[in-house]
Design goal:
- Helices cover 79% and strands 0% of the residues.
- Helix 2 (44-69) runs antiparallel to helix 3 (73-103).
- The protein is mainly alpha-helical.
Length: 122
């Protein structure tokens, strides 16, 4: 039994660094996709949705990768604390921004952007 546990520990030490690097890369790519969404979407509500969803999940993947690569349990505990802080504050900030835009009277863009209104042409 002890030999099996030693073999599992060796496999884990071999696998955790590439797995952590993969999660960090996937999180970074997700954050880049969110940035493209913020630049391409037409109004504040869709931009806010793209930013909040990809920011939270991208940061979560990066933090998961960092936790896998971390040298000790103290660093993992700090990364978990940072993740909890992000998962509590990011949706709250997004909701506050959407509420402020709604309260200010900002209307979402409905329909295709750049399409002419056909009602006045008939």
């Amino acid at each position: 039994m002890a030999d099996l546990l030693n073999q599992l520990a060796l496999v884990w030490e071999t696998v955790r660094f590439p797995l952590g690097a993969f999660f960090c890369l996937a999180g970074a790519l997700l954050c880049i996709v969110g940035t493209v969404g913020v630049l391409r979407f037409p109004d504040i509500y869709t931009r806010l949705h793209a930013a909040s969803i990809t920011d939270t999940s991208g940061a979560g993947l990066v933090l998961l990768g960092m936790a896998l690569i971390a040298p000790g349990w103290l660093v993992v505990a700090k990364v978990i604390a940072i993740g909890l802080f992000l998962f509590l504050t990011s949706p709250t900030a997004s909701h506050a921004l959407a509420n402020a835009a709604h309260t200010a009277g900002v209307q979402p863009i409905i329909g295709r952007v750049g399409q002419a209104d056909d009602e006045g042409d008939a």
